[in-house]
Amino acid sequence: MSRDLLHTAWGIHGLGVHLPDRRVSNEDIAGQYGVEPAWIERMTGITHRRYAEPHQSTSDLAHAAAEHALADAGLSPRDIDVILVASSTPDQLAVATACRVQHRLGADRAWATDVGGACAGFLNALKTARDILTASHPEGRALVIGAETFSKFQNPQDRSTGVLFADGAGAAVVGPARTGQGILCSVQGTDGALADIVGIRAGGSAQPASARTVSEGGHYLHMQGKAVAAYFHDTFPRIVHDLTRTSGLALDQIDLVIPHQANPRMLRTLGSQLGITAEQLVITADTFGNTGAASIPMALHAARSQGRLTSHTTVLHAAVGAGMSWAGAVQRWL
Questions:
Q1: Rounded to whole angstroms, how far apart are CA atoms 63 and 98?
Q2: Architecture of the domain defined by 183-332
Q3: How many angstroms separate the CA atoms of 112 and 133, rounded?
Q4: Which CATH architecture has domain 3-180?
């Protein structure tokens, strides 16, 4: 195929979600954090979240979401050329969670790897999938998955993370689109000076696992809540501005704003300040919690189920993750 006939436009052809069965209310966890259930809802906007069972891993959730996305797209695993998994909570170090998903799906034609970026990971993976397909698979398909099992990394005494983060997986099948549809533009950025304000400190080469790191809680998710919130308040408006400028679309020309599902209360407040209406803003973390890299595909799936996401709907995404890193995208739904 000549170069001028290669696809340069790519969009989402299928969506899938998997939520663990275990539904955890504010009443279930308030006591361990020394707060009232009403305090959790007032401070976060979250009423419920889902937790994986002890035997479930991130790849289990990712695999289930991927199967749903493939069925939604009408494809088989062997139709997939690339599998990208975004997660802050992989099955293990060294082995990409995507490799386990590839094997369990039977997608033996696909190249599989993981993508970083924490809560911004799904958008990083979406851009990476688009770039790989453009360069190497002109008629190809990619499976992009965000999956998290934050409950396995929760400090049972740290309410700054314990009341916010939860488990879930969302997947999208990316394939060719007509010009003017699909992913219209994307933006990314990083500020490594703030790498220590949120994350999991121990378990890597800087702090290998030891009795000391375990006793100090280094393998739990930690977060400097005020610093993270301040960064989000500064960065989220910048992402929205950059995307409207890059896409050439004014904010009132955007049908839906689907951000990573951080603190729902904060999202509503900041969205209102930016002129994002309640009709535009999609929030699912009220009942799912912050599912990190999984939250955007999960919210896309919810918006479509609610009839808010239909053909030609223009969607803006913005996400801020550990690193600190951020990402955004605008897409026109196929």
A1: 9
A2: 3-Layer(aba) Sandwich (3.40)
A3: 13
A4: 3-Layer(aba) Sandwich (3.40)
pTM for the structure as a whole:
0.96
Q: Which of 260, 263, 301, 317 is catalytic?
A: 260
* Active-site pick, 18, 263, 290, 301: 290
Query: Which position among 13, 26, 119, 124 bears the catalytic label?
Result: 119
**Residue 218: Cβ within 10 Å count:** 16
- State which H helix or E strand residue 108 sits in: none
Task: Show pLDDT as tens, one digit a residue, over the chain (334 residues).
Answer: 444 456 679 999 999 999 999 999 999 999 999 999 999 999 999 999 999 999 999 999 999 999 999 999 999 999 999 999 999 999 999 999 999 999 999 999 999 999 999 999 999 999 999 999 999 999 999 999 999 999 999 999 999 999 999 999 999 999 999 999 999 999 999 999 999 999 999 999 999 999 999 999 999 999 999 999 999 999 999 999 999 999 999 999 999 999 999 999 999 999 999 999 999 999 999 999 999 999 999 999 999 999 999 999 999 999 999 999 999 999 999 9
Domain range summary for the chain, segments of one domain joined by +: 3-180, 183-332
Q: Is 260 a catalytic residue?
A: yes
